[in-house]
């Protein structure tokens, strides 16, 4: 049975679990005292970082391109991998969903895996995501798994364990690795910081449930049995939470005679609770390479525009991730002949630097005038149709090659030296003298006879 068939069978088995089995599992977890809400994903900053990175990669279009003989680059839409990478890696996922899931697993688990389903008869490719928790990576230098030493991936499925070679699996790993083969997640590196934030949120939740009041000491004289103590505590807690409110005494807690209620005040400001939480959140965001403003912290935002923010995020964070994906895809999906022919895979990062319309128009105009883009290439950036004659490079005619700089002055000097001296024309000179004399006489008469 092929890997995709086993994956489908496992998914069907998972979906076929009854509600009774789910309820039994939840009851078992509660009985064992396992908190299902204490995962790293429940921490707001951690979740926000995963969201920013996964959506940041998913919004980048990925294309197959080819270097041309003239030294340019063209989009190879006819390549058999173009639609797989750009539109639909498999029949059940769009490209945005697939690459967003891959980046989410890479950040959360440290590794993201995808099985390369290649049909030799049709030459078609499909990419299937693999659960990182079910994958084990081995370098079989002792030739225990196969006859050829290689990096192997053992994938556990409901129907058994499948062994895949290094060329059959796309492996995207985090920047931090144990041995260069398997990545280490940020969750493992910052386990104490993330758990500290989770516990801080739980404390706030408990304080909210208790009406934002801390613990109290209830003093009384005499003896009460256990049942009476529990009933008294329950009654006082209900009043403190506001669950019991009288018409004119919502903030009054009645207690029997001889009892004293002493609150144990806990001030969050005195313990710098908010400052510590903010510092921990910045540590988590910094580990992911996410900017503070992207997780809701605008206290030290110094960017002049949204474009500057996106450029900083692209250069400082996404550029390494994008390069890692491109290298892995080219190594596993393109043949040596295709690489030699100039084919390569590239994410289009320009979508992150989209500007407002006026700036975009000015930039495209300068690119066309500077011989960088043809008019049709500029029109395509505006989603406008191409026009006849718009595929030629246009620009400022005053532009000259750098090696010819100053040659125009030399040419003018040579022409001036070679040109023969001009011979004066007697008739033309006589007519100019008559016109000048006539103008002098008229000016004299106007001065003497102004009327």
Characterization of the model:
By secondary structure, this protein is an alpha+beta fold. Among the domains are: 215-264; 356-418, no CATH class. Helices cover 45% and strands 13% of the residues. It is built from 15 helices and eleven strands. It has helices spanning 3-15, 19-32, 44-58, 82-86, 95-109, 186-189, 191-209, 226-241, 273-288, 306-333, 336-340, 357-369, 375-381, 407-418, 426-448, and strands spanning 62-67, 73-75, 111-118, 125-130, 135-139, 151-157, 160-164, 169-173, 216-220, 259-263, 343-347. The strands form four sheets. Strands 2-1-11 form a three-stranded antiparallel beta sheet. A hairpin with a 6-residue loop joins strand 3 (111-118) and strand 4. Helix 3 packs across helix 5 and helix 7 packs antiparallel against helix 9 (273-288). The longest helix has 28 residues, at 306-333. The N and C termini lie far apart (118 Å). The model is unreliable at 13-22 and 32-37 (pLDDT under 50).
